[in-house]
Structure to design on (365 residues):
């Protein structure tokens, strides 16, 4: 089988199978969510920028939001034969690189919270996470092993 | 898929011209500060969904970004973006000495913030004087990180209030010192109508 590399940009989702590698470059406040069914080797990576579609007036791009993107990812995986009870998640991102000082600017933390809440609601265990802080992250997700590699500009490389 | 938002030709020209005025003033102030000739590219203006911005500015490399929020009649952000070597050369022009380190110490950071503050301040006062509207700036904030992540963070913050952005990108170069930087302006759609109204008022005078 050929190994494909897919780049997942903001408000995008990739769902694919074993061997494939999914990459998201330069996360700031956005969050990358990986989902995986280890039994049949299918996984997904979503790149969300906002916590909830419910609070948004414009609902045209559901993949922008943590809650709706997770629902869509799960639905797509179910169609491919995954079982929800076997799914597991990992997340990275949600940094706060600029502290603007007013109200709602820690959007990164809000995103992380919304992702966790949605996963809990759907009974999908969160196996590991690397979130928060003040630095950017590039995420490489290997479906075969479920390993998420997180690169940063100055803080080295991490595996979760 | 790529929906480009619509502005009339007249509106586009007016906004571009406005950008030109601002950037001209800002780079003149930079030229004075560093006593060098500063050249600028033609501003590239786009009215696009926020999520398309990362398709236009891409950099996995670490960059120094100084950001200021627009306040008052105009909402949005100004971002000055430079690769490490360019930023180091620019700081050298101001300080008279170059530090060959991989990071930016406190002094270097405050020089970068001050440079950005003066350039952006000149830019914004040129615009507010011309348009006769009130635009203010927050104090500068700075990050040294992957260029992509800086952009990601910025559009994440902006996306809380807007889906689209009027995005203006200008590059500036100091040839003799191999300095190359970008000034990016992100304006939210509500401010655009305020700016266009102001232009109309001036045109009708």
């Amino acid at each position: 089988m050929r190994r494909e590399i897919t780049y997942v940009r903001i408000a995008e989702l990739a769902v694919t199978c074993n061997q494939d590698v999914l990459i998201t470059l330069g996360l700031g406040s956005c969050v990358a969510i990986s989902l995986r069914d280890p039994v049949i080797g299918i996984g997904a990576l979503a790149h969300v920028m906002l916590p909830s579609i419910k609070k948004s007036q414009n609902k045209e791009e559901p993949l922008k939001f943590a809650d709706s993107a997770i629902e869509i990812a799960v639905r797509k995986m179910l169609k491919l034969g995954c079982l929800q009870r076997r799914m597991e998640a990992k997340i990275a991102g949600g940094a706060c690189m600029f502290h603007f000082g007013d109200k709602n600017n820690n959007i990164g933390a809000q995103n992380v919270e919304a992702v966790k809440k949605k996963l809990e609601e759907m009974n999908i265990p969160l196996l590991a996470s690397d979130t928060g802080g003040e630095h950017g992250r590039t995420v490489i997700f290997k479906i075969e092993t479920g390993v998420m590699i997180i690169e940063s500009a100055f803080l080295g490389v991490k595996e979760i | 898929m790529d929906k480009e938002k619509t502005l009339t030709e007249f509106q586009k020209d007016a906004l571009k011209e406005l950008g030109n005025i601002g950037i001209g003033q800002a780079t003149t102030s930079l030229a004075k500060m560093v006593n060098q000739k500063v050249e600028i590219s033609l501003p590239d203006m786009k009215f696009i969904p926020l999520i398309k911005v990362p398709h236009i500015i891409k950099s996995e490399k670490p960059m120094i970004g100084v950001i200021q929020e627009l306040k008052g009649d105009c909402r949005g952000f100004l971002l000055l973006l430079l690769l490490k070597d360019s930023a180091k050369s620019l700081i050298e022009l101001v300080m008279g000495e170059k530090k060959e380190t991989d990071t930016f110490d406190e002094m270097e950071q405050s020089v970068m913030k001050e440079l950005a503050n003066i350039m952006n301040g000149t830019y914004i006062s040129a615009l507010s004087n011309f348009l006769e509207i009130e635009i203010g700036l927050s104090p500068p904030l700075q990050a040294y990180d992957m260029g992509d992540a800086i952009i990601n963070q910025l559009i994440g913050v902006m996306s809380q209030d807007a889906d689209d952005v009027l995005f203006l990108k200008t590059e500036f170069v100091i040839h003799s010192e191999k300095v190359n930087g970008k000034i990016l302006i992100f304006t939210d759609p509500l401010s655009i109508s305020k700016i266009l109204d102001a232009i109309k008022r001036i045109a009708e005078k």
Remarks:
- Chain B touches chain A through 30 residues (CB under 8 Å).
- The first strand of chain B starts at residue 39 and ends at 40.
